[in-house]
Design goal:
Butyryl-CoA Dehydrogenase, subunit A, domain 3, acyl-CoA dehydrogenase activity, four-stranded antiparallel beta sheet, FAD, 3 domains, Acyl-CoA_DH_CS, alpha+beta, Butyryl-CoA Dehydrogenase, subunit A, domain 2, Acyl-CoA_Oxase/DH_mid-dom_sf, about 15% strand, 10 strands, four-stranded mixed beta sheet, Butyryl-Coa Dehydrogenase, subunit A, domain 1, flavin adenine dinucleotide binding
Length: about 375
């Protein structure tokens, strides 16, 4: 893995690799079939504090730079993309608070995670996907409280989160400038979750509706200022997209690993199929694309750590990595031949897992709009 990381991070990477080999990779196969959320696997990950990698050091986190965290997240994705998505989506849920929340909310969110919880980010609604500004969830100020009503959908970690960062309209007449962001703790009266979505891939992650019915929260749970919620959400996604590129890169790397291992074992015409130049060229192209994706992820995260603009780079990382995850997974299946199409072998799952990365946290069509706007100017 060609991330340049510290010796300390390399040691942690070995620990994560061992954990994923022993506790995640094979165990997740049965959960991919059942669609159940593997609580016991996540409990073990929490014991290692793998769920809190993005918590800043001042709030109890490990204090790793983002590229080091990416190396760890990719290693999780190589084992199982749903597992890595759950871990990364918890960081996504925390980002609005870290971007614009009060010191009290930052401490509260980070403490909930360090103590073994997960976060969730609630933006998407049934009629507001790519057009996030079309959301209908409302938040009405009532004394020293806000009362939330509405429904969010496709929320990763929805049924297992300890807290939610939620966008809601505080002034419908203002469009996107009337959207605010709120911190809502699990267990708040009026907050409920729907059924776990029966998904095509990343089946070891939880995805469900989150519903607010006269859900009353303290006014101090407003993140930032009224009317700034859409901006905070977009800043959140600008960061989060790179992490989805990271997970997608892990899917692609798993495809390469599986294709090479099978290519060395499968004998046709008296020799391993990997000896055929046509398949060696496939591996070369898979490696070119995967390493390029990895370095785009590293570049975007480095710019974040340096405090430089990164919106374009993050969009490129997510868009490119998810596109090549689909391509590399498909080529891995091709190298397995008929066996690649069978669920008895590991590569068909990679294609199912990869597809969502072209869709969530901004479709790749939206990413291309972001990239074009950054290059051309509005």
């Amino acid at each position: 893995m060609a991330y340049i990381i510290s010796e300390e991070a390399k040691d942690l990477l070995e620990d994560v690799k061992e954990f994923c080999e022993n506790e995640v990779k094979e165990q997740c196969k049965e959960y991919d079939v059942s669609g159940e959320w593997p609580k016991e696997i996540y409990d073990k990950a929490i014991e290692m504090q793998l769920h809190s990698l993005e918590v800043p050091e001042e709030y109890g986190g490990p204090g790793l730079d983002r590229v080091s965290v990416a190396a760890l997240i990719e290693q999780m994705a190589i084992a199982d993309a749903g597992f890595a998505t759950t871990i990364s989506a918890s960081g996504l849920g925390m980002k609005p608070v870290l971007i614009a929340g009060s010191e009290e909310l930052k401490k509260k969110a980070c403490n909930l995670i360090v103590d073994g919880g997960f976060g969730a980010f609630c933006l998407t609604e049934p009629m507001a996907g790519s057009d996030a500004g079309a959301g209908k969830t409302t938040a009405v100020k009532d004394g020293d409280s806000y009362v939330l009503n509405g429904r969010k959908c496709f929320i990763t970690n929805g049924a297992v989160a300890s807290f939610y960062c939620v966008t809601a309209m505080t002034d419908k007449s203002q469009g996107t400038k009337g959207i605010s962001m709120f911190f809502v703790e699990a267990g708040t009266p009026g907050l409920s979750t729907g059924n776990h979505e029966n998904k095509m891939g990343i089946r070891t992650s939880n995805t469900c509706d989150v519903v607010f019915e006269d859900c009353r929260i303290p006014a101090e749970n407003l993140i930032g200022q009224e009317g700034k919620g859409f901006k905070i959400a977009m800043q959140t996604l600008d960061q989060a997209r790179t992490w989805m590129g990271c997970v997608a890169t892990g899917i692609a790397q798993r495809g390469i690993n599986e294709a090479i291992a099978y290519g060395k074992e499968r004998i046709q015409f008296g020799k391993p199929i990997i000896k055929n130049q046509a398949l060696q060229f496939k591996i070369a192209d898979m490696e070119i694309k995967t390493e390029t994706a990895r370095q785009m992820v590293a570049h975007a995260l480095t710019k974040m750590d340096m405090g430089l603009p990164y919106a374009k780079e993050s969009a490129i990382a997510k868009c490119y990595a998810s596109d090549i995850a689909m391509e590399v997974s498909s080529e891995a299946i091709q190298m397995f031949g008929g066996y690649g199409y069978s669920r008895e072998y590991p590569v068909e799952k990679l294609l199912r897992d990869a597809k969502i990365f072209q869709i969530f946290e901004g479709t790749n069509e939206i990413q291309r709009i972001v990239i074009a706007n950054n290059v051309i100017g509005r």
